[in-house]
Amino acid sequence: MADTIAGAAAEHPGRTVKGFPNIDGDVQSSGIIGVTAGLAVSDQPCYAVGIDIIPAAANVSVTIYDNASAASGTEVHKSLTLLSTKSVHIDLENTLCKNGMFIVTTGAGLEVIARFRR
């Protein structure tokens, strides 16, 4: 018997592990989102696959929380402050967000694309 979620999913491809999203599921995208402060990307358990940060100005940052509706709970990822307007991709490697995925940003003129499985 598997002792991890990934191990259980490997033993039963295409099936969900009770209480967790399907790690073999299709990757979903939020599309391009202009975030002004905070945004719920998923209000259900999911695996965070990756995020693209598209800054229109320097001095922006992104924090991802394991939460369905607020900037609290477990911090899944915190980006460093980006000092230029170059886009950045962050691979989150199927990080489990048990409660959902909520993104908080700082700075002006920031867009993100979040990818996740649920």
Describe the secondary structure blueprint for this structure.
Elements: H1 5-11, E1 28-29, E2 33-34, E3 38-42, E4 46-55, E5 61-66, E6 74-78, E7 88-97, E8 101-106, E9 110-117
Antiparallel strand pairs: 1-9, 2-9, 3-8, 4-7, 4-9, 5-6, 5-8
Distance between the termini: 23 Å
| Series of secondary-structure elements, N-terminal to C-terminal | HEEEEEEEEE
Sequence stretches where pLDDT stays below 50 over 5 or more residues: none
| Structural class by secondary-structure content | mainly beta
At a glance:
The chain has 118 residues and is mainly beta.
Structure description:
- This protein is mainly beta and 118 residues long.
- Helices cover 6% and strands 46% of the residues.
- The protein is built from 1 helix and 9 strands, in the order H-E-E-E-E-E-E-E-E-E.
- It has one helix spanning 5-11, and strands spanning 28-29, 33-34, 38-42, 46-55, 61-66, 74-78, 88-97, 101-106, 110-117.
- The strands form 2 sheets. Strands 1, 2, 4, 7 and 9 form a 5-stranded antiparallel β-sheet that branches.
- The longest helix has 7 residues, at 5-11.
- The chain is globular and about 40 Å long.
- The mean pLDDT is 81.
Using brief descriptors, characterize the structure shown.
four-stranded antiparallel sheet, globular, 1 helix, single chain, 118 residues
